[in-house]
Amino acid sequence: xxxxxxxxxxxxxxxxxREAELLSWGIVDGGFPxxxxxxxxxxxxxxxESLRSPEDVIDExxxxxxLFGFSNRRGERRWRSRMAEAVRLFSRLRQLxxxxxxxxxxxxxxDFRFDIKPRLYPKRNWPLDEDELEDDSDDPTVLxxxxxxxxxxxxxxxxxxxxxxxxxxxxxxx
Length: 174
Description:
mainly alpha, Arc Repressor Mutant, subunit A, two-stranded antiparallel sheet
């Protein structure tokens, strides 16, 4: 599967912000009709000055399983994001027992709070040094050979160092 286009991520953000308005009030069964979804997508595409069609972006989001199509109780086609579907499913959890039908089972979630924040991505600003790539062990499974420039986040760099140069438990040295 190919990487998702950044414009599609912007569209997903707009969809999730619109859904969050209802989810924050506990309304979990909503969904976008096709026309409303296409209008929302078209607005983001216009704002980003993209020439892509709304249908193309919707198809890409569905292909990446970030947007789900479903039919409501009246048989009308609707769409919701993976985030909204997860909140809906979590809010409907029930305690199943062998002696009780699932429709009569007590709900496990009596109340919930929902808040949405911007996505955060860790900085990958630590280049690997050649010294850190040297592997003294004979174990071929350690990490193999890195042939391109790699940038890691701080945690990844520490984990990599600990894998390649483990601390001796007796001496405390690498």
